[in-house]
Write a structure and sequence with these properties.
Radius of gyration of chain A: 22 Å
Largest sheet of chain A: 5 strands, parallel
CATH topology of the largest domain in chain A: Rossmann fold
Number of strands of chain A: 12
Largest interface: A-B, 22 and 23 residues
Number of helices of chain A: 8
CATH class of the largest domain in chain A: Alpha Beta
Shape of chain A: elongated
CATH architecture of the largest domain in chain A: 3-Layer(aba) Sandwich
Order of helices and strands of chain A: EHEHEHEHEHEEEEHEHHEE
Strand content of chain A: 15-25%
Oligomer: homodimer
Chain lengths: ~230, ~230
Amino acid sequence: MYRLLVVDDEAKIREVIKEYSEFNGYDVTEAEDGMTAVGLCKLNDYDLIIMDIMMPKLDGFSACKEIKKIKDIPIIMLSARTEEYDKLFGFELGIDDYVVKPFSPKELMARVQAVLARHNSAASSAPETPEEMEFGGLVINIAGRIVTVDGEKIDLTPKEYDLLFYLVENKNIALSRDKLLSDIWGYDFFGDDRTIDTHIKNLRNALGPYRDYIVTIRGVGYKFEI
Amino acid sequence: MYRLLVVDDEAKIREVIKEYSEFNGYDVTEAEDGMTAVGLCKLNDYDLIIMDIMMPKLDGFSACKEIKKIKDIPIIMLSARTEEYDKLFGFELGIDDYVVKPFSPKELMARVQAVLARHNSAASSAPETPEEMEFGGLVINIAGRIVTVDGEKIDLTPKEYDLLFYLVENKNIALSRDKLLSDIWGYDFFGDDRTIDTHIKNLRNALGPYRDYIVTIRGVGYKFEI
DNA sequence: GTTTTTTGTGAAGACATGTTGAAGAGAAAA
DNA sequence: TTTTCTCTTCAACATGTCTTCACAAAAAAC
């Protein structure tokens, strides 16, 4: 049975979350401020923490920071504030998901389930993504971020590797420049579309005999075709 | 404009919800029991239902069950009872959100908005878009933008592909040149109608044995007939 | 059957897009 | 700070694509 820690200063919110969580078979502990939450984490083990940002004594971000120092427990943040800034800031601290108030219990539960599943599959030795991907003589070692061409290791810059990996992950799917930019560079990148072209060029050159795996789709973008 | 159905036996509650909803730009229909609500749902379309649990004739849970059989309308439940049992049951029946009385109208409105947004994005972002469309030996791979004729891949220019895809998407529908132009080329295209004819010609040639799927409708335009 | 209207087709110029090398800006490492 | 590596932008070039046009062919109207 999974153990959840629910941290919020509003009793009503805690109660709703607790009831839904218990219905879903989770064991719930409540805490009403960040300080208490940190203390509880020192002494007990939890599988997941659902925590509000705005709290007395110790806010959610600070509490998150402290907890992450002690143990690697997945954290879902609650917030009434929708500003992007919070999200970014939070994610850097290792937050696993983010739910904006008012949320529906159903949605929250779905996220809890997703985060737990993600964490478990990562911890257990049954990864969804294989260690390596092979396409003829092109081998991508994911854990090591190493790419070999006919057994020979090739040098790729970080962006080149990310681009290759993304293309391969979505092989046989036409990917627009827009999508590539927002998914690899991030939605906050406001540069030129054509940057991709240059990286594609460099990547193709690096792939040598396998350069043709990367297919241009005129008027759209690129795809990895196998 | 969104249409809400408010179901509660207390006129005062209905009135409050109606007032706030209309202020927020929603169109509201009232019903005072579950039986009436089910009847209304059979005959009308609503975007969201706000329903009390405790009602005469047919309680909220039973009504919810009945309505879900008919149509997939998001439902927000109201309840004065905080017992677990209520929530559990509701959860299983596919309730989208849950508000405990006494609630603040502001909170309820926020939830209405959230549920509507979620439902809409879910509906629009996950339509039944098959991976492939087949018409005899003509296969269109949508994700990869690849068209094969009797297993053989054919080369299509961007416009040719877009045109084919649009025709197929609207198969058996007569499409005027005007409509084709504005929907494929964009409303800001001020060129010649006859441009389409040339593309149709090229597309037909590319389709080889399946060229006759594209039918000319004299005086109007073209259609994909299957 | 002839004329008129509409569509089919091939060719060619105009246009748009992708490729590429180079260079400077920027970030990371020394 | 300096050096090195990476990323981004730019512009010239090559190539592919689109649009237009003129005429042929077909269908409809007279």
